[in-house]
Design goal:
Keywords: Membrane, Signal, Transmembrane, Transmembrane helix. By secondary structure, the protein is an all-alpha fold. It is built from 2 helices and no strands. About 0% of the residues are buried.
Length: about 80
């Protein structure tokens, strides 16, 4: 059992060392207002919570459906 633990910890240590070696340096940030080919375009100015009420209502209905279907499948005690 000690041999298996030793091999496991050796492999884990080896993998952590390899990942550090293979990691790339992050690209240098562009100057203010300068666009490069690696920078993504700016996001559109859309509101995040446009349909939040509809999504909350659907989540509530889905939760009720899941609870109801679970109670139908569950055996009842006599």
């Amino acid at each position: 059992m000690k041999i298996v633990q030793m091999v496991f910890f050796t492999l884990v240590l080896f993998m952590f060392c390899i990942f550090n070696v293979l990691a790339k340096d992050p690209p240098q940030p562009a100057a203010a207002g300068e666009r490069t080919s690696t920078t993504p375009p700016p996001p559109p100015g859309l509101p995040v919570d446009e349909n939040i009420n509809t999504m909350m209502a659907l989540a509530l209905l889905f939760g009720i459906y899941i609870i109801y279907s679970f109670k139908l499948k569950q055996k009842t005690l006599m």
